[in-house]
Amino acid sequence: PPSSYVKDEL
Amino acid sequence: MNLFRLLGDMTHLLSIVVLLLKIRTVKSCAGISLKTQELYVIVFLTRYLDLFTKYYSVYNTAMKLVFLGTSIGIVWYMRYHKVVKQTYSKDEDTFKHYFLILLSIILALLIHRAFDVIEVLWTFSLYLEAVAILPQLVLLQKSRNIDTLTGDYVFLLGAYRALYILNWVYRFLMENHKFRWIPWISGLVQTALYADFFYYYIKSWKNREKLKLPA
Question: Could you say which residues from 1 to 10 on chain A have a Cβ atom under 8 Å away from some Cβ of chain B?
């Protein structure tokens, strides 16, 4: 999974 | 995107619609904390800096712009609209919100994943969002008369973060994601702050009584 996954959230 | 995440975003959006409905049609912001609303503007401005650096999806970009635009619009109405600003419960909106900003800055400088401007500001926005509801909750406690729209607004705002927790659990289990302590703990704290409010909101709804928080 992409390391920045949480940042695809709002 | 899973269902919890979508429901969370829609609940967040709906909370803003409810608040705008109160402001634009009832022409009132009584019982709404300007301090909380200003904190949300800061939260969105510092979190969505990645609008300029990273593209995720049309949905993501559109929602960010909506949250930025509406939060700034709401503060504008409460401060400058000639009818709405007169309904502002200024004397009861007394929480020292600068203290929350300072606390979040210090915490973000101490606890973050990487020390660069965007990452620290992003972390700051999570910490600040977690506590941004406090001036609003304090104002509600002082309000003798909480109207339905204000109660619904705060409830939807709390429900949004609770749904995000389910979304994180889902992503952790189903999408094999790693631990992400900073957003998870901030989100848990944020949701926990609503616990008391949820209790009285649901109680008043079940008994069909007017919402009232004990002082």
Answer: 1, 4-10
